[in-house]
Structures are given as structure tokens and as C-alpha cells.
Design brief:
Length: 148
């Protein structure tokens, strides 16, 4: 576990603003591994978290927020709900039929600019996928998919 300090947090926020319009991260950011970033809003201080990690080896704490890719960030399903009032960019509105395909774990054959896209059906954000210009790659975890 690595606690992300202010300069790196500002860089992350700038990238999230550029990608999705997110302008505020009022949480402590924790990095696990090379790619996953979690949000922590509990009552433990940074120093207390460091001591716990040193003595107990914390594997996970907080809410899984984003995965860092070489070409940007991919928001988790939970963070879509948490930041729904801030997300204003890279939104791709899809119909009910495509939403059902998405919930089943299928990629969507939609032509769109190459970037991470927030999928929206009706009034709800339903996922974050990566556009390859020809399709939107689905990252919904298997345990959260609708079974046929």
C-alpha cells in the first residue's frame, strides 16, 4: 500500500478532469500494486494507516476507484455512482438493448473516438469501457454480470 501524496494526487485529478470532468477528490488516495487506486474516507490518519500496513500488511482498504492504464484511467463501477454529479465528459449514451448486452459482459460494436468511455443508459451510468474506435471493451467483473 502506498499513500498518494498531494503532488501526485493533483496529477491524477487533472487527468480525471481531462478525461471525465471530475474536479474534486475529497478522499485519501491509496495505491495498491502498480495500477489500482482506492479511496479512503475513514477516521484513521495517514500515519496510522502506514503503521497498520507495516505491521499487518493491509491488502485492501477503502473503495476501489480507478485502474491506471498507460493511456488513461478506467473508473470502477462503484466510483461511477460516487462521482455521478461530476462526470461530464466521454459519456456514451446507449439504448436498453445495448445496456442488456453490456450487463451480460459483452463488448459493444459501437464506433467512437478511441478513449475510455462512461456508458449511460437512461439516467444511469452503467460502466466504463475502452473504445478501440470499432468496439467498446467490457470490463464488468464476472461476478457482477447478468447470467443468460
Amino acid at each position: 500500500m502506498k499513500i498518494i501524496k498531494s503532488p501526485e494526487k493533483r496529477k491524477i485529478l487533472n487527468q480525471l478532469n481531462k478525461q471525465f470532468g471530475i474536479t474534486s477528490l475529497p478522499y485519501l488516495l491509496l495505491k495498491f500494486g502498480k495500477e489500482k487506486i482506492r479511496l479512503y474516507s475513514g477516521s484513521l490518519s495517514s500515519e496510522e494507516l502506514r503503521v497498520l500496513d507495516k505491521n499487518l500488511r493491509i491488502e485492501n482498504i477503502g473503495l476501489y476507484f480507478v485502474k491506471q492504464h498507460p493511456d488513461g484511467f478506467r473508473l470502477s463501477l462503484d466510483s461511477l455512482y460516487l462521482f455521478k454529479n461530476q462526470i461530464t465528459k466521454n459519456i456514451l449514451v446507449i439504448d436498453d438493448e445495448k445496456a442488456e448486452q453490456w450487463f451480460k459482459g459483452n463488448d459493444l460494436l459501437i464506433k467512437a473516438e478511441k478513449s475510455f468511455k462512461i456508458l449511460k443508459n437512461r439516467q444511469d451510468f452503467i460502466g466504463c469501457g475502452k473504445s478501440t474506435k470499432e468496439r467498446i471493451t467490457n470490463f464488468v467483473p464476472k461476478e457482477r454480470r447478468i447470467k443468460d
